[in-house]
């Protein structure tokens, strides 16, 4: 009877250790998946801003942007300034030390875009700016990124 009880305790300890290893592996996989999602979103945002910024500076679409900026009543110099901010901001999103600052600058640019579209009766045109802005705010806040780098639980409160 005592031998059987020892065997049961040993089996329970082995099972517990296996469950703990599985939980740790699952936690690592979750952190890896969240990191991959964070990096993917950052890269997509960077590409979007570089492409839109470039469209304000060169090619046929820059002519359309010039017409829009003029119609909105902005000075001609503002279009290339916004284009350069978007391009540099998009590239800076990919640099970890500059991500937060770049996101902050781009949030201001997207806020200006939303204001412009709303004040000129173009409510549907705010959707892209809002979507990009929401992702930028998430990137700017970065609580998940800091917790992942610190190795703490992403579900815990700071």
Number of strands: 0
Poorly predicted spans: 152-158
Helix content: over 70%
Number of domains: 1
Proportion of strand residues: under 5%
Query: Mind describing the biggest β-sheet?
Result: none
Please state the structural category. mainly alpha
Cα end-to-end separation: 49 Å
Shape: elongated
Please count the helical segments: 6
User: What is the overall pLDDT average?
Assistant: 83
Order of helices and strands: HHHHHH
Radius of gyration: 25 Å
Task: Produce a short descriptive summary.
The chain has 158 residues and is mostly helical.
Description:
The protein has 158 residues and is an all-alpha fold. The chain has one domain (31-150). The chain is built from 6 helices and no strands. It has helices at residues 2-57, 60-71, 78-92, 99-119, 126-141, 143-150. Helix 1 (2-57) packs across helix 5. It is elongated, with a radius of gyration of 25 Å. The N and C termini lie far apart (49 Å). The model is unreliable at 152-158 (pLDDT under 50).
Notable characteristics:
6 helices; elongated; mainly alpha; 0% strand; disordered C terminus; 158 residues
Topology:
Layout: H1 2-57, H2 60-71, H3 78-92, H4 99-119, H5 126-141, H6 143-150
């Amino acid at each position: 009877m005592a031998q059987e009880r020892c065997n049961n305790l040993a089996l329970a300890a082995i099972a517990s250790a296996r469950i703990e290893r599985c939980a740790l592996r699952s936690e690592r996989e979750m952190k890896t998946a969240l990191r991959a999602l964070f990096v993917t979103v950052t890269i997509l945002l960077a590409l979007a801003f570089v492409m839109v910024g470039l469209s304000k500076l060169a090619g046929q679409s820059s002519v359309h942007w010039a017409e829009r900026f003029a119609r909105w009543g902005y000075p001609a110099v503002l279009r290339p300034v916004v284009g350069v901010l978007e391009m540099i901001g998009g590239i800076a999103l990919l640099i970890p030390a500059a991500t937060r600052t770049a996101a902050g600058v781009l949030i201001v640019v997207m806020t200006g875009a939303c204001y412009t579209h709303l004040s000129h009766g173009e409510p549907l045109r705010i959707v892209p700016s809002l979507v990009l802005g929401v992702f930028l705010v998430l990137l700017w806040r970065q609580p998940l990124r800091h917790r992942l780098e610190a190795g703490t639980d992403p579900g815990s409160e700071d």
